[in-house]
Specification:
The protein has 331 residues and is of the alpha/beta class. 31% of the residues lie in helices and 23% in strands. Strand 9 (233-238) and strand 10 (241-247) form a beta hairpin. Helix 3 runs parallel beside helix 5 (166-178) and helix 4 crosses helix 5. The protein is globular, with a radius of gyration of 21 Å.
Amino acid sequence: MASAATQVPQQNAGQDDVILSVQGLKKFFTVGRGLTLKAVDDVSFTIKRGETMGLVGESGCGKSTTGRTIIRLYEPTGGKVFFDGEDVTKLEGAARKAFNRKMQMIFQDPYASLNPRMTVGDIVGEPLDIHDLARGKERLERVHELLNIVGLNAEHALRYPHEFSGGQRQRIGVARSLAVDPNFIIADEPISALDVSIQAQVVNLLRRLQDQRGLTYLFIAHDLSMVKYISDRVGVMYLGKLVEYARSAELYREPLHPYTQALLSAIPIADPKIERSRQRIVLEGDVPSPVNPGKGCRFRTRCRLAQSICAEVDPEWREVSPGHFVACHVV
C-alpha cells in the first residue's frame, strides 16, 4: 500500500502558494527497556501561505509532538519538512538561526512557558537579543510596541509573569512569538489552559494578527468548535497517524473517517431539537499501546465499522475527492 510519505496532500493552488510541506514525518522515542514509542508515524500534509490549518485529536495522539518536530524542538526520526521550499531538517548553524526567525511557537501552558525570574520586557525582548535585531532605546520601543499590539500596556514590561492572569500571560507569549516578525506560527493548544471567557479573546487576537501581518498558522487543539471557527483546513490525528485531512467546511459537513465522525458527534448543538434527534457515536474498546499498536489500522479496536482487513493491512492514505484525504478501508 502507498504510504503518506509517497502521497502528500497538495492544494488546488500552485506549489508557490504552499509555505509548509510535511512529508512522511516520523518522531520515535525510546522508552523503558529499549521499547520504541511511535509518537508521530508517517504524517504528511501541506499548508498554504496565509491560511490556518487546525490539527485535532484526543490527548496523546501526537499533535503537539508533530508541531515541536516541525519547528525542530524535537529532531525528526524520519521524513522531511519543507518551509518555503527548503528542507529545514538539514539546516544547521546560521541557516538554522535564520529559519528560527521565520517560524515561531506559542506554547500551551502560559504559566510554565514564561521564565518567572524575568520581567515581561526581558521575555518579549529576548528574541531581539538572540537575533541582534534591536538594542537600547530601539529595543525598549519595540517591546512596548509588541505589548500594545497584543492588548497590554507599556508599563507591563516592568512586571513579572506571576502578576498577570492566564489570558494576559498567553498574550505575553504571543508578543514574544511576534518579536522577530515570523511568517509562520505554531500555536500548540494556546487556549486549553484558559477560562472559556478568555479563550475567544485570544483566538480573535490571533485572527486579527493574521489579517494584519499575513501570518500562517498551524493551530493545534482538541476543541473542535474553536478549530472550526479559526481553521481553513483540518487534519485529524489518531495514535500518531493522520487519518483525515480536508477543508474545514467539508470536513465538518461530511466527515468520512469513523473516528472523525465520532469526534464531531460530540460537539454540542445549541438547538435542542437538533441535539435530541442526532446520533451520538460513543467509542468503545481499548486504545492500542502506542509502543506496540499492532498490524493494520490503529483505530480498529474502537471502530464500529471494522472489518477483517482492518486488523491486517494499514489503510492507504488516499485522496477521495479534491483536497480531501482519508486513511480508511471502509470509506
